[in-house]
Amino acid sequence: MTDEPLLSLESVDTYYGPIHILQGLNLNVRAGELVCLLGGNASGKSTTLKTVLGLVNPRNGTVRFGGEDVTKRSTSYRIRQGMAIVPENRRLFAPMTVLENLQMGAYLHAGGTKEDFDRVYELFPLLHERRAQLAGTLSGGEQQMVAMGRALMAKPKLLLMDEPSMGLAPILVERSFEIIKQVHESGVAMLIVEQNANVSLSIADRGYVLSTGRLVLEGKADDLREDEGLRKAYLGR
Amino acid sequence: MDGDDRDIPPIPASPAEAHAPRVGVDEWVASVAERREGYSGVLGRARSELERVPRPVFYAAFGVAAALLPAITSDGYIVRVGFDTLLYMLLALGLNITVGYAGLLDLGYVAFYGFGAYGYAMLASPKFGIHWNTLAIVPVVVIATAILGLLVALPSRRLLGDYLAIVTLFFGQLFVAVYTNGERMSLFGLTRSHDVTGGPNGIPNVDNFNVFGGRIGSLQAYYYVALGVFLLVLLVVFLIDTSRTGRAWKSLREDPLAAELMGMPVNRLKLIAFAAGAAVAGLAGTLFAALNTAVFASDFDVPTLIIIYAILILGGAGSIGGVILGALVVNISLEVLRTPGHATWVFYVTILATLLMALRPWRVLALVLGGTVAFGYAAHAIVAAAWPRGVHGSPSVGGWFGSGLSGWELHPSNPRLIGNITFIALVLAVLALTLLSGWKRWAAMIPTLYLAGFVWENRLVVEPSITRLILVGVILIVLMNARPQGLLGTARVEIV
Lengths: 237, 496
Ligand SMILES: Nc1ncnc2c1ncn2[C@@H]1O[C@H](COP(=O)(O)OP(=O)(O)OP(=O)(O)O)[C@@H](O)[C@H]1O
Ligand SMILES: [Mg+2]
Description:
With 237 residues, chain A is α/β, with parallel strands linked by helices. Chain A is built from 10 helices and 10 strands.
């Protein structure tokens, strides 16, 4: 099989202390693929991303990235191998300018080349106009763009996103996903955690649905959209 | 559930087509010219002009102004204060790297200063009969201090915030203890004991700087050496500040996890910041030892640490200009406060300025001030009639201000006991003030202010060394309320 996934979690069990959160999770993302991870509150979505990044270590199971077993590797190693994340709550460097935030995103590439900046500015013209503004003074939606731009500056192979639509007006949610789609079409693989199943499934290739730490559904995005159970639970119709 | 006609909304093909808000394109920026509130008036113009001047121009201007000081005054005292101020600027600049940029609360910082001073003293004094050339000692000492910094930070690098503060504070105290008891040192009691640090007597007869056979002896020369060293370090720090490493430190300080997620080597960056700060302190130590020609462990204790932190916080942590301004303000006010007459001025001016800033509306301000003055004269008249000895003493300042005070303030002939009692009364009165509100507070303020003046005249003036620190503390508190970010720091931005 040449079609080895870029990222795979193999029967992963993640605990916080004694609390068993992820239970035998199997999940994979192929190169260039857009996968969304759905689930209700506290179902373990963020925990999955943390496990992928090595911010928590699974007790059992294997995390592979680019064919390599990275289960025992540090977060910074995984970042250097080509992961990047748009974290929940964005976590911008508030007292630094938009430009500096983007530069920090490209820390591993010596602050980024002009092409890197141009690429991000093309996706988010706003970031160019606001490059001298302190990131903490931006509106929530604007901050979300900085967070995405910052992650893209790292030229990741796999981009992880934790609830990119959080706190955005419905029309902005669609726009953000438009941008996500563009980024995806430029060849970046993505794993997107979302509450907003409707919009995310409309652009995703595949999807997984978590419930209290277990996978309850997985499949092609189009199939999931037609799935009765998922509709009842998440799509609200 | 008749769902299927309500399909998922289609995503428009191109953002330009849609009549939606143009995401990613900034309508605010387009209209920013109309929205920006311009600075008006002459001051406003000056301010917006100043903002355009690149920062190094200011540093250069400072360098030129500072270089002129020994030329315009031959007063040794003033040049000495200038030297000390430069030394503190240098120390604050180093601490600024550790605390201001990287956000590592280093409370053992003075130990590195002391380590540098003792290092110089040991390599250039009759203590061990070693008299190296200064150009050899300084790099050795600076590198040794940086390594010591690494060793201190290495076990604590995982420790964050409060823990690091405690560990470094402990290290600082350990340093003082070891150096004051270092006259009988032996390796774990196995070897014969040696006098390594001179114990409480320190190391005397330290050589002056000695460069290519020329000895640097005069105070003026040291002043220029200190200025040169400071400007050099400032240049380096400025370059780092605007470099990738400088930005990485700042992002690390803001959000270590996010920094790690950007792939920054968080621990290594912390260690570098810690060691760099230590190295600057070590460098400052060599200057200190060479000018004073003696070192004592007690010079590197908590009071010195407090002054350095006061400079950093007052100026605004993370700001180079703030370090300069902070050192000027703190050191000059500490000097001015040495003389009781000056201190009295500072005391009343600080109180007045605070009232002017804090009390609104103007009506209340006028009432409180007028009330305090009237209250004082009334009290003075009553006491003078009933108990003449209560107005027997004289105020701590002369001139018109003093004669005004002598009719207002009570000056008992033997103020010690009554001074102590009123001091406690003052503390209670201030506490009571914080509990009251509205007009009761304004009314209670009048006797409290009078009491403060009384305590000042009869108690605090008598002990200038303590008073000095109390006053500097009060000035810091007042300034912190007015500008929490420090004089030149940037206001904190919180993401909520
Ligand atoms: N550090 C931690 N220690 C203990 N429990 C934790 C920790 N972090 C998360 N949890 C728990 O793990 C469970 C899953 O959390 P997680 O953050 O993965 O949820 P989520 O699916 O991202 O939810 P949401 O959509 O609300 O963000 C929750 O019950 C949470 O309380
Ligand atoms: Mg979450």
